Amino acid sequence: MNPEASHGKTKNGSRQHPLRVLQILPSLQGGGVERGTLEVARAMVARGWESIVMSEGGRLVPQLLKEGSEHLAAPVGRKNPWVLLQVFRLIKVCRQRQIDILHARSRIPAWIAWFAMRCLPAQQRPIFVTTIHGLHSVNWFSSIMARGDKVIAVSQTASDYVLRHYSSLDPSRLHLVHRGVTASEFPRDYKPDAQWQQQWYDDFPMLRNAKVVCLPGRITRRKGHLEFLELIASMRRIDDRVVGLIVGDWEPRQASLIKAIHQRAAALGIQDYLIWTGHRNDMKSIYASTDLTLSLSNKPESFGRSILEPLCLGKRCAGLDHGGVGEVLSQMFPEGKLDPLAGLECWTQQCLGLMNETGPLPRANAFLLSESLNRELNLYEFWVGEQSFP
Questions:
Q1: Which of 42, 82, 191, 266 is 20 to 30 A from 21 in CA distance terms?
Q2: Stretch (H or E) spanning 246
Q3: Where does the chain hold its CATH 3.40.50.2000 domain(s)?
């Protein structure tokens, strides 16, 4: 059977109900995993399936509900032994709702799902799916992400990583489904409207005539914010129009890192040329108003979405040439690949060169969300159909 064409028929040739899929993850506060969950949920609703998400909740729940999915609030991401009580809740949900696919997108929820599957009779078990969204540390705790009946990797980097570190994973259980971006959400050559631009420059007047270099993403130690400061300072020594833009929020536990960033910016003399926006919901307009978007994560990312989005807009980007970021840049803008072993001077010259208006522009979107979603949902149907034919 072809997973790209199957329609998941049951033994008698037709389904008794639409596919019922339960996605489980720690929260819906924000981030790539959470946004991917909503994208898959939206696509399932469009097919007439029942889409259910279990999480602790967060700012994305209203959008999930508006788009036709159901949300079950449960503390399934907490790192304490009491979280295992959620196993019994999940067993009850799987039985009552006759779940076809149970899809875990994070490690603690995956363990909850795994224990729940062990407690259900074989004929009542959904197909247990895990997705490798991140390149987790290699240990027993992380191994759960390779224990799904079916395992999805969001990039070739993630696929290679899990196969290299978990020999127990049969390659036939592993499926590559890249993340993606829609042309309508991030259209080529998009320009923000006049009202947005006026508000943006009222809020951040320094950016009006600046060369804006942006580092997006949640602020953590591995995202390269301290390296970003060094790069901005080095670029400003050559072109004093350069201004650094940090877009993203942070958790209270990152307080020491925030303090270190402020202190280093002051030591480099760039504290007045560094803009902090916090969390934003208008990334398309921000990317479109930025001269260069960077990815400087010192640890390889599983997928480079924060680079893919501005590239789809036709905006130049640069990122360390490893992991998913390197994959995306190789496909769409190889000129933006930064050698992780090159020094600051080399990065500086390359980044300044990329901001030259006569330089090359990114290629067309090589990671269409529609193709990714169709592949993932077709796999769901194929797996359910495969299970129905002994």
A1: 82
A2: strand 242-247
A3: 20-180+369-388, 194-354
